[in-house]
Amino acid sequence: MQLTTARLVLRDFGEDDWRRVGEYRADPFYLRYYPEDASTEEAARDFVSMVMGWAAETPRKKFQLAIVRASDGLVIGNCGARTTSERHREAEFGCELDPQNWGQGYATEAGRAIIGFAFESLRVHRVFARTFAENRAAVLLAERLGMRLEGRLRERRFFKGRWWDHLFYAVLEQEWKRNGPETVEAKTPVIMHFTPKGW
To answer: Do the beta carbons of residue 148 and residue 45 sit within 8 Å?
Structure first.
């Protein structure tokens, strides 16, 4: 599986990609919204193994792709759409980016590609995302991707010694088609929160 944008290649993960995942997850800026053990070799290997397992499923319902910078072939993050309900045609969006590549529009570019794929190829009706309320950059990404705020779950997760609120965003098929897949350059750091070992 591969998608190509102006500056990126989104592709399935390979076994050796865990090294790059571990490298960028070790950045302190990344770890603000993730557990400290997310950057361990075990966690990186488990993540890559999990998404490779999804890729091997038949029929395939979850697409979490490596974000590769086309200019040099470097893996700089991952982005995906995972079908959560075939009957209701719904998928969840998730994205993370190497902090060294924040502020260059890569997350928006990758997000538009994978959400377009979800609507056009997976034929979903609704794509949603969830993030910590404090993760302002993730909120801005959701808005750039045409998502609307649908709700706030107060103190939904106990993490790093305190309770955190979760925000839920979504975009509908007709909204996506009406607004089009034009690229909007991101100007702020972006990481969409998700749990490394599963959702």
So the answer is: no
